Amino acid sequence: MWEMWDMRKRDGLDLLTQVVLVLLGVYFICLKQQALVHITTLLGLLMMAGGAACIVRAFIRKEQSSLFLSMPVLLAVGGIVLLIFRKQATEVVPFCIGVWALVLGVVKTVVAVQYAAARVRNWWAQIIPAALGILMGILILTGTVNLNAIFTVLMGVYLVLLGIFNIVDFFVFRHRMMHP
Fold first, then answer.
1. pTM beyond 0.85, yes or no
2. pLDDT, tens digit (0-9, with 9 covering 90-100), for 117-159
3. Rg of the chain over CA atoms, in angstroms?
4. Which residues contact 57 (CB under 8 A, 6 or more apart)?
5. What is the dihedral of CA 163, 89, 93, 78, to 10 degrees?
6. Angle at 42 between CA 57 and CA 51, to 5 degrees
């Protein structure tokens, strides 16, 4: 019973994360100017809150080993550093987002190939966000997207599309789990 409850909580949290991605994307599209500072601030807050939440969860579950605590502590400290050095971090954040988008695109491509090999229907649905991630990563890392407004609009569009595809993928996967 508790396993089903944990799975439902995790599913709800995953779905909420994707909805937040879509909302952040819309926010970045609408904001345009000075959005890079806002992206850095939000990223710092999310890193700090996520790290703190993982630390609290580790202590509640009595998993205080250095392995369980090192990543959340680094995440929280990284968030604090981003918040303290916001202006300077705006120079580094686009590079980090470019690397993240590129890695996510490659991972989604690998997942699509594995789905195709396993003959999963709609395996190609992973290719669209994968291609978007790879394209976004390449555009940012090559310096093609330099202007603040263009970067934030592009980032907003990417987040909206990624969130929508992940929400659709969530419901397709859930339907397959319920009706094999």
1. no
2. 888 777 777 788 888 889 888 888 887 666 566 777 777 888 8
3. 18
4. none
5. -70
6. 20
